[in-house]
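Researcher: Sequence recovery benchmark, item below. Answer with residues only.
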């Protein structure tokens, strides 16, 4: 093999290794910038969700301690995705907020909220606690409703990247979301399983389990 051939072979191998390195870097998960996430939370999110993710009332969810993967997915679902006519989650306020965030912004702010300490919540209706606990821990067998705990955990901590944390969430917010799941398109259409489950619950059952979840820890 002459010198030119050897040189070309070395360059070819080097180019191949460089390409593999670029692919490897592209495959690496994007690292969140928590400090940047905090800045976004304070500037954009605090008025509704609180600077630390602990909202002041049930009109807006508590985000503190929530799984970052879940938060990123929800933010993306507020945007109209290519080929879709409407977002998977229909909320005029959040649509505007999410539209202003890049994918990296979403990752950053989700990482920040996930590191914050959630404030505990409380159940308020002692008359429905037993029913709420029954639904959360055992489901409603004759309606084909599984136990909430089977996905969200016995204490409502959820499973990272799969099922959200529910512990201590405002009852009013949980009721609103369960009702939105019953409506599907035009309200909340980003989880087929929850659409089916919520549609089988009565309004009184929804209120009972939401109130129970508020005091769950």
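Model:
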């Amino acid at each position: 093999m002459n010198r030119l051939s050897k040189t070309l072979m070395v360059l070819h191998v080097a180019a191949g290794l460089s390409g593999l390195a670029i692919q490897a870097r592209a495959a690496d998960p994007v690292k969140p910038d928590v400090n940047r996430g905090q800045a976004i939370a304070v500037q954009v999110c605090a008025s509704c969700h609180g600077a630390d993710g602990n909202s002041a009332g049930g009109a807006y969810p508590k985000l503190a301690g929530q799984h970052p993967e879940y938060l990123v997915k929800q933010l993306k679902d507020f945007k109209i995705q290519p080929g879709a006519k409407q977002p998977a989650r229909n909320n005029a306020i959040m649509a505007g907020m999410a539209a202003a965030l890049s994918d990296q912004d979403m990752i950053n702010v989700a990482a920040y909220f996930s590191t914050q300490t959630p404030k505990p919540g409380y159940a308020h209706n002692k008359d429905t606690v037993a029913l709420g606990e029954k639904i959360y821990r055992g489901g409603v067998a004759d309606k084909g409703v599984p136990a909430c705990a089977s996905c969200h955990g016995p204490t409502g901590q959820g499973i990272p990247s799969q099922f959200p944390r529910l512990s201590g969430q405002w009852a009013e917010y949980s009721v609103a979301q369960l009702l939105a799941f019953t409506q599907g398109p035009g309200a909340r259409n980003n989880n087929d399983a929850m659409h089916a489950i919520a549609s089988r619950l009565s309004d009184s059952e929804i209120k009972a389990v939401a109130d129970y979840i508020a005091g769950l820890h």
